[in-house]
Amino acid sequence: MIYFRVVLFLSYFLLPGEGTFLNPVKNGPLYVQNPAQGSFSQTTQKGQAATRLTVWLFMDPECPVCQGYTRTLKELYEKYQTQGVEFRAVYPTYTLKKKDIRRFHGSYQLPFAGQKDKGAALADRFDATVTPEAILTDPLGRIIYRGAIDNWYYALGKNRPAVTEHYLRDALEATLQGQPVLPARTQAVGCLINR
Known about the structure:
By secondary structure, the chain is α+β, with helices and mostly antiparallel strands. It has 2 domains: 2-49, no CATH class; 52-192, Glutaredoxin (3-Layer(aba) Sandwich), CATH 3.40.30. Helix content is 29%, strand content 26%. The protein has helices at residues 2-14, 64-80, 98-107, 121-126, 167-176, and strands spanning 20-22, 30-34, 39-43, 49-50, 53-58, 85-91, 113-116, 130-131, 133-137, 143-147, 153-155, 158-159, 191-192. The strands form 4 sheets. The protein has a 5-stranded mixed β-sheet. The longest helix is centred in the middle third of the chain and has 17 residues, at 64-80.
């Protein structure tokens, strides 16, 4: 009987259902499920709701692979930011300064936010190992897709003349259309994250 009560108690907090859930990111916003629509929306401090998928892009300004992907990332941002997708560049390299991040965003005209990953906390949370690496999360912080942006690079320093698989774009399209993401994980190719 005690076991049943514990399971019932935990299911109230852990299983998706009607009510409020805490974002797994510490001190993050609250999310509320709309039972009628079956979708989640972020509740801001002012009580405004906004559906949000987040693309976490682990980057390094000195990585040539990251530099090569800036155009693709700008195009993805321009296409999906109007559809409720937030893009965040995360810089886990401990030697970077905020001015280095600003300079990189300015030089490559990256239109989305960039932040230093102090102590590689986000890299650890998402288990990111290389730059660039993309992680797509739902409004609850659950990982929908992780890995390469596309298959342009197939090994460090080796790339195809043309992209044939658009992993991140396909994951965004599938998620926005309510379809399963396949593949949900690919191997990112790039510069190792030094912790």
